[in-house]
Write a structure and sequence with these properties.
The complex is a heterodimer of chains A (254) and B (411). Chain A has one domain: Rossmann fold (3-Layer(aba) Sandwich), CATH 3.40.50.300. In chain A, 34% of the residues lie in helices and 25% in strands. Chain A has seven helices and ten strands. In chain A, strands 6-7-8-3-9-10 form a six-stranded mixed β-sheet, sandwiched between helices. In chain A, strand 1 and strand 2 form a beta hairpin. The longest helix of chain A is centred in the C-terminal third of the chain and has 23 residues. Chain A is globular and about 55 Å long. Chain A starts with 5 loop residues before the first strand and ends with a helix. In chain B, 18% of the residues lie in helices and 40% in strands. Chain B contains seven helices and 20 strands. Classes of the chains: A alpha/beta (254), B alpha/beta (411).
């Protein structure tokens, strides 16, 4: 198995002609989970969208290496088939397309009906399979539905955008459990292959999911990298402003 | 030729409007069609019809080989009824000419839900060679399998005239699947059909109509429905194949308390097709309800999707949903939803949307590993899927198959 499964090198990304991410570097080994912190508008979602390969997010410099392959120019769907999956923060409603259809799409030709029902049971969404995807779903239902789809898709790299936003305390434990299942936390470290990159604004999800590395993003750059719990403690104590000040002191040129 | 007691009055009224254009739709020149066709031989065993004709009929939902799951069958070829049969007790299926001979009272149902002087098309039916089907369920009988009817246009340049009467007596249940189609892929023709539905107290009728024409055929159905107390009328209309010009605006009148009318339409306009299709429901009795749903896709043709709900009684409820998808350039989509209320305490609403497939939705599916074309097909399939409450599973499956058969043409 290769040592580094995801390597992002000097990545610069623009959206609609405006540069949002500048010179991002990030490396993940198989089985690792990393957490992305940062205030609203700092570029966290943009980074996930760029890794997933959404056409609106244009890489103008740098590259993304996944499983030893340069995927910088690979289309979105090919990246998904190669093993990258994403849990969206605000996925669109697709009228007429049922939750069941989405899970079936994620399973791609595997033996389906039974598996779909199992996954729905596990995510507490059995009553949602025949509903239109995301139509009238609550915040927690959206998160669980996104994770159900990823559990069907089984990506090597799971990009998780704010799994706890809009979720009540009862649901957050279930979401944590689903994330751990997705990220193979029940497997011995050396046997895990699934990686997770989780955006968390509040850090609550870290009470449930163990992340190895944390990053603070600010204004499109990764300002600092370290132990996620330590970073979270600092953010909780001093706020993002302090993190940003600290970063600016170290890198005055920006 | 059909004769009724009041024929003379009807004929006089018809003559007076022989040149009157319809309110909506392109004005069709009736002189460019012939109004009479040769008599066709009766066909006791419709499975013996030529394979080609059977195939066309099958594409419109009409099963002639092993029709085990049909309660009855009626086939009209051009203007001649060639077959009618019944396989279940409690339902009558016959040519309307025969029914008028058999039942004196039937003339009281003639031109009652649709006016003979509506336009030149209704007039043309009354004044020229015509026939049609008569279907009636006896009181209390619930007919499990659908009755199938086929209006088949065989002769080129013919104006096919049909006048159908459907009566569901009190507390009966009837399902009809009707397929209208043509023998030729390219010959011009005109299909004119009047359908009059009478849903008595507590009766339930589902009417599933699949049209399968060709790019040269013009179609002008005229439908009227009267629904009495606690009655239900459910109409499903599917047109996914090319047609030159189609205009229809069936009208259901809920005259009894708690009567319910539901209309679902699935429309696809291919290049060169011009569709003007609506559903109109008048809620005239307390507690009457309606739901009108139309899903329209253009791949280059033009569609006007109309809907009209009028509430004239307390506690009525109606919802109208018109959604249109423009898949390729060159087509037009015009949604015209209308609501009218005449007293307080009614509840009418509508939603209409016209647009293309949202890129965000396509990308969402692509992020799950579907290719762009798979993602688009999934969204279109979802768009055309209408979950129809009250339709037996057999018909629901057949309807779904008819829709799915057209999906590959859309991509």
């Amino acid at each position: 198995m290769e040592d580094v499964a995801l390597s992002i090198e000097q990545l610069t990304v623009e959206v609609e002609g405006r540069e949002i991410l500048h010179n991002i570097n990030l490396r993940m080994k198989p089985g690792e989970t990393h957490a992305l912190f940062g205030p609203n508008g700092s570029g966290k979602t943009t980074l996930l969208m760029a890794i997933m390969g959404f056409p609106k997010y244009k890489v103008t410099r740098g590259k993304i290496i996944f499983k030893g392959q340069d995927i910088t120019k690979l289309p979105l769907d090919e990246r998904a088939r190669l093993g990258i999956g994403m849990s969206f923060q605000r996925p669109p409603v697709v009228r007429g397309v049922k939750t069941r259809d989405m899970v079936a799409a994620c399973l791609r030709g595997q033996k389906q009906e039974e598996r779909i029902n199992q996954l729905a049971e596990k995510t507490n969404l059995a009553d949602f399979l025949d509903r239109e995807i995301n139509y009238g779903f609550s915040g927690g239902e959206i998160k669980r539905s996104e994770l159900m789809q990823l559990l069907a898709q089984r990506p090597t790299l799971a990009l998780i955008d704010e799994p706890e936003s809009g979720v009540d305390l009862v649901n957050i434990a279930l979401i944590g459990e689903l994330l751990n299942s997705l990220l193979e936390k029940d497997c011995p470290i050396l046997e895990r292959r699934c990686m997770g990159l989780i955006i968390t604004h509040t850090g609550h999800i870290l009470d449930y999911v163990n992340a190895r590395t944390g990053y603070v993003m600010h204004d499109g750059v990764i300002g600092c990298e370290g132990d996620p719990h330590e970073i979270l403690a600092t953010i909780r104590e001093k706020g993002y402003q302090e993190c940003i000040q600290c970063f600016l002191r170290r890198a005055p040129s920006g | 030729m059909v004769e009724t007691k009041s024929s003379k009055t009807h004929k006089d009224k018809a003559k007076a409007v022989a040149a009157k254009p319809a309110v909506f739709g392109e004005d069709i020149d009736l002189d460019s069609y012939v109004n009479s066709a040769e008599e066709q031989p009766p066909q006791v065993t419709p499975s013996k019809l030529p394979a080609r004709d059977k195939k066309r009929m099958l594409e419109a939902g009409i099963i002639l080989d092993e029709p085990g799951q049909r309660a009855g069958t009626f086939i009209q070829m051009d203007n001649a009824p060639i077959h009618s049969s019944v396989r279940q007790e409690g339902v009558e299926v016959m040519a309307v000419s025969q029914a008028l001979e058999k039942y004196d009272w039937l003339s009281d149902y003639w031109w009652q839900t649709v006016a003979v002087d509506t336009d030149k098309y209704t007039a043309n039916i009354e004044l020229n060679q015509h026939n049609g089907y008569f279907i009636r369920t006896l009181p209390g009988y619930k007919i499990i399998y659908p009755v199938q009817t086929c209006l088949y246009l065989a002769k080129a340049r013919l104006a096919q005239n049909a006048h159908n009467i459907i009566i569901a007596e009190e507390n009966s249940e009837l399902h009809i699947i009707t397929g209208c189609t043509t023998a030729s892929d390219e010959e011009a023709g005109l299909h004119l059909g009047v359908s009059e539905f009478y849903i008595k107290k507590g009766a339930k009728v589902t009417f599933t109509m699949i049209h399968n024409w060709n790019p040269e055929v013009a179609v002008r159905p005229r439908t009227g429905v009267i629904i009495e107390e606690n009655g239900l009328f459910l109409s499903n209309y599917v047109l996914t194949k090319p047609v030159r010009s189609l205009q229809m605006y069936p009208t259901a009148r809920c005259v009894g308390e708690n009567a319910v009318a539901r209309f679902n339409s699935i429309l696809v306009a291919t290049p060169g097709s011009s569709l003007d299709v609506g559903s109109r429901v008048i809620l005239d009795a307390k507690g009457a309800k309606t739901e009108i749903i139309s899903r329209a896709i253009t791949t280059g043709g033009s569609i006007i999707a109309r809907g009209y709900i009028e509430g004239n009684a307390p506690d009525v409820k109606g919802h109208l949903e018109c959604r249109g998808l423009i898949l390729t350039g060159g087509g037009t989509m015009h949604a015209i939803p209308e609501l009218k209320g005449t007293l307080a305490g009614i509840d009418l609403s509508h939603e209409a949307a016209v647009g293309k497939i949202a890129e965000e939705e396509v990308e969402y599916l692509m992020a799950r590993g579907l290719t762009r074309s798979e993602a688009t097909a999934t969204i279109v399939r979802g768009f055309l899927r209408v979950d129809i409450e009250g339709l037996p599973p057999l018909l629901s499956d057949e309807l779904q198959r008819a829709i799915e058969a057209s999906e590959k043409d859309l991509m």
